[in-house]
User: Fold DUF7136 domain-containing protein from Aspergillus tanneri.
Amino acid sequence: MHFSLLVGVAVGLGAIVGASGVLEVDLVFPRNETYAPTDYFPVVFALQNAERARYLKSQLKLQSSL
Assistant:
């Protein structure tokens, strides 16, 4: 019983450590159509592990069509 618990904890910690090396960009707003469209519309992005971005030549392009 204790061995299987130890293996489960080790696997979980390995996943957490492995995920820390990933640059993640998320769209925070707008989501799920919970907004009223206007002429000026905010778009909010969130970065996780932003220090990883310095190693990339990243670009963010936004295109809208009405």
The first helix runs from residue 2 to 19. Residues 1-17 have pLDDT under 50 and may be disordered. Residues 23-66 form one domain. The CA atoms of residues 12 and 18 lie 10 Å apart.
